[in-house]
Design brief:
alpha+beta; 5-stranded mixed sheet; 20% strand
């Protein structure tokens, strides 16, 4: 009897993993549904031991049906993850030394610091070590703004929107900014940044700093999805050099992020290189890529790195890029179909 109960428990776990794979197929904005976009790697890793144990101990009629279902689910989860591994061709091309002029380079550091985190010094040391040209700090209240005031000597250009609701953001720049603005695209307590940035070469690009609200269970993902689509459409309409960075509260393989890329035409440097999971920094077995940098094909990739722990539940991300005349010739930017544009319109209409 005990052995039978163990097998049934194993089968129950298997069917739960099948359900976790199938739930994201539901066309719903419900946070409970959209949350299952995130743990694809964890679900795949959970399927492996269940498959192995069923092969050894559960090959009856119901066990064989579950084996087939789990094998199909594993194949699907790996298919979704594979683009973010070296098994896939890189989407963003790495720059060679001869491709990049010094005055056309820019480095960006993004850090969601966790508003309640009081380890300000770890971030200050990290910034001093890497010395990025642009720094976007998320989840920043007035206390964080004051703690980071030493950065003002190094970064003469700033956009500051400190807030007590975990959606404050601070943007520091060594490079000149043009028409910087804080915008509230959909929710009056969730800001984003848009600004022009002038490289030492005199070339310009538009920088978007974003941190939409996440789709927690019990909440809709519609505002997050719509905000990302709105920015994607804006990038597409401008048709110029652009960088979009921040904590998107979405994983790189979700249908929303895929739609964002298709509409915007921006490149994801993770594709063909790795997952670079940034959240949750405190839970090694539950991590996924929430912090992103996307850029237009006017840039080549110099360097991409997940930085060390700074007391937050997110790891920072550091990226370096360079403007290059050859970049558009050697990279294939995503292209939107009519169906993508229709899906984008529907995502925005869902919140109106």
């Amino acid at each position: 009897m005990a052995g039978s109960a163990w097998i049934w428990a194993l089968k129950g776990a298997g069917w739960l993993l099948v359900a976790a794979t199938l739930i994201p197929f539901i066309r719903s904005d419900a946070g409970f549904v959209r949350t299952f976009d995130f743990p694809r790697l964890q679900v795949a890793m959970g399927i492996l031991p269940v498959l192995a144990l069923l092969l050894m101990f559960g090959r009856d009629r119901t066990g064989l049906a579950l084996l087939v279902a789990l094998a199909a689910c594993l194949a699907y989860q790996l298919h979704k993850i594979r683009p973010f591994t070296p098994l896939h061709a890189p989407q963003a091309v790495a720059a060679r030394d001869t491709d990049c002029r010094t005055d056309a380079k820019v480095s960006v550091l993004i850090a969601n610091v966790l508003q309640d985190n009081d380890d300000h010094e770890s971030l200050l040391r990290l910034v001093a070590r890497h010395d990025p040209d642009l720094l976007l700090v998320l989840e920043t209240d007035a206390r964080w703004r004051d703690a980071l005031s030493p950065l003002t000597a190094r970064y003469p250009h700033r956009v500051e929107q400190a807030q007590p609701n975990t959606y404050g953001l601070l943007f520091y720049a060594k490079l000149p900014l043009e028409n910087p603005e804080v915008r509230f695209l959909l929710e009056d307590d969730v800001p984003s940044i848009r600004t022009g940035v002038v490289l030492p070469s005199g070339e310009r690009f538009t920088f978007y700093g974003v941190h939409p609200r996440p789709p927690h269970p019990g909440q809709s993902s519609a505002p997050r999805d719509a905000e990302l689509v709105m920015i994607a459409r804006e990038v597409r309409a401008a048709n110029g050099p652009a960088v979009v960075a921040g904590d998107l509260n979405d994983v790189a393989w979700s249908r929303t992020t895929t739609l964002f890329q298709q509409i915007s035409g921006l490149l994801d440097p993770r594709i063909g290189r790795g997952l670079y999971p940034t959240f949750n920094a405190k839970w090694p077995l539950l991590r996924w890529p929430l912090d992103h940098v996307f850029f237009s094909d006017d840039f080549l990739l110099g360097h991409l790195e997940r930085l060390p722990y700074i007391g937050s539940d997110h790891f920072p991300i550091l990226i370096s890029l360079c403007r290059s005349d050859t970049a558009p010739k050697v990279q294939d930017a995503p292209e939107a179909t009519a169906a993508d544009m229709k899906a984008g319109r529907e995502a925005i209409e869902a919140v109106k």
